[in-house]
Amino acid sequence: MCEPCVRKRIKLVQVPENIPWVRCARCGIVEIQGKWVHISEEEIWDELIQRHVHFHKKAEDIGLALETRTVSDRHTLLHLQVEGVIEDLLFKEEHTMRARMANGVCLTCTRRAGNYFEATVQLRSTGRRLSEEEFTSLRFTLDKVIEDLADDPMFFITSEGPVTGGYDVVLGSKGLARTWGRHLVSEYGGHVAESNSTVGRKDGIDVTRLTLLYRKPGYDIGDVLRWRDHYWRPATWTKDGAIMSRIDRQERTGATWRDLESSSVVSQMKDHVSVDIINEDSSVAEFLDPSTWNMAEVRVAWDHEPRQKLRLARIDGEWLALHKLGCDSEDGGKSI
Q1: CATH of the domain spanning 224-335, picked from 3.40.1390, 1.10.287, 2.40.50, 2.50.20
Q2: What pLDDT score does 145 carry?
Q3: Which DSSP helix (H) or strand (E) runs through 186?
């Protein structure tokens, strides 16, 4: 065939007049090939073009330019300029198609509206009642876990709120609950207990709900504890307990949660003070007592280096110099 006849019979691209797409009327996410995802408007148009615009099977060196024009809240015109090579002939075409948005409801919003949940995480403590700030800090870690995980429509919070003795969070995913539990243990120590209850059957399979109980220890890394008739500081968490660092000498030992049940917190990190030394020798240092502004003496820690500040804890009316832990660099204590 001659070139004019070839151009009449061959179309570089087939473009439909109208193409539908669905957005959730509640949260605004978009359905793409059966999945609900968060994408930008530009990515929506790219996705629609890839799915609905079909090029000739012999086309090569294809180029495409796109311009959009919003007609209404639901309708957007997509103007396409396309060029490509077929059998050494350059084809250039212009097309217009209309993207029609329809409202839908995603799986997450459907289940949220029905108060659907799969797991309940109970935040509790051992040894002492946690403060409001501590519960807020624990709860904040859930937002970070959800942000770091892959986008999953089941990763949502059904309800939450304070209860007697703690704080409960009801979640739409068992996997999210377990991931958060592991994060809490690695970040704050403590331990997690799981229990499952059967709530029905679906397609011959038991439907269960998970209750995950997280107990945070009443002490944190760097606090001073009285344990085994000596003063210790938790240096780091382990899977089954903590690594304890003794204050009066260079000694470390592992302790399980059961071992530490007999311990008591005598000074928290937030109550420690950091003071400048006025005079010192190999074992004793003089400083201004921040409670009386009089000269006071304290035995220096076993790892003390000359002319460095002292980290002190007040226990039973007496000052105790603390050795250095890695957490001290993050929280230097109150400077005096």
Answers
A1: 2.40.50
A2: 92
A3: helix 174-188
